[in-house]
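Re: Re: token formats

Sure, here are both.
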Amino acid sequence: MIAPSPSPVDPRLERIRTVLRCLLAVIYAFVGYVHLHSPGGFLAIMPAWVPYPDRVILITGLCEILGAIALMTKRLRYLAGIMLAAYAVCVFPANIKHALEGIAIGHTKLGWWYHGPRLLFQPVIIWWALFAGGITDWPLRTRKALNR
């Protein structure tokens, strides 16, 4: 999938987008690595209705790494933004289960000091992927760009 025709570029907006895209790619690549290297913690928070949870964790780890790589390419950036946003929606049930059931990961039980902000931040992660992929400029679009 190739991005739609670009609108006039605001250099400030593109600098912000580039920094956020690089940061998001690093985060997704790291979390993907953790999925592959230490899947046990993810198995613990996987909802029971997910079939083949061990394979799902492997696949999601690979998807995170590939999504991070694609986000850094011009050709695949747009698609990567959409797919990483969709991915963030799909993993939300695991985050909810983790919070509601207070599941300990590696002998550490995280409280609501962690889960509350984590759950509230999920929509930001979805927006972040869409912004990094060039799907949206909201809310950083300048007044000048809006008038074009």
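Second one below.
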Amino acid sequence: MSEVKQALAQAADAARFAPSIHNTQPWRWVVRPDRLELFAVAERQLRAQDPDARMLLLSCGAALHHAQVALDAEGWAYTVDRPASLAPDRPLAVVTPSERRPAEPEATRHLQMLQVRRTDRRTVSDEAVPETVLDELVKDTEEVGGRLHVLSRDQVIDLAVAVERAQAAEAADDRARAELLTWVGGERPEGTGIPSSALPTEVPLTTVAERDFQTAGTVQAGGGHDRAATYAVLYGSGDAEADWLRAGESLSRLWLSATEHAVSLLPFSGPVEVPFTREALRRMLGGAGLPYLALRLGLQDPAHTAPPHTPRLPATQVIEITG
């Protein structure tokens, strides 16, 4: 295998650990001799909760950024084309490497954060995230084209209402409830979904309610609250497929930066999935853009040990090497 092809295969393998909606991992990679192609997998789309494939695209965007992180850590220069097609025979993105150069120390750190990043649904510390760290997270999000709006105290209450209304709407949808149970709970030996080991024993009593997955997990949520947490909205200017793909890249960059600063990041996709609560988030932005995701940011509770990684599909199921 050539040096370029091996680097692309390693990048696709690193991308397997990207976050995705309910850990559906709705992506497929094709490694060609001179490029890496990313495709959407319709079979792993949440048809009831995500009929427009927004969260699928956002998830694939996170995987795309993870692949770029791996190439950066190996010192590869590359270009990324984003046709963002959901057609099964057309790629969402194409990564084409050009030349190799010495890797920057920052790129190596990002790769390390990729390997330790987790989704932690437990309560956070009672100590607030420092303003200097929040400024850094905002800057890092903008570095890859996203925007991060930090919510005021009043807007956090508005977010809590939007989250509650979104949960009520999805709880009343039989298809959405059935779909959720397909992807959540149990041991998940097939390599997708959220296992019980990644879920709290009960939903924490917080101002902004976490998603009720309708099944009890095995992790103690902790005794704290979210009073010291910071809430934010990831947003941008467009609603096209390429915009949601870029949103996923921005989320990945933000999450890796948060991990580096010992900040726990918890995404809230519910209020974006329901049209009338997505409109409520848009109003919080004051006309600055369109919401892609709500987020909780909080310092990790020092009493908590790292939660286990959620399962991943084997490389043979998501990576095809041709030529």
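The domain at 131-299 is CATH 3.40.109.10 (NADH Oxidase). The beta strands are 27-31, 36-40, 76-81, 93-100, 147-150, 230-236, 263-268, 290-299, 319-321.
- S.
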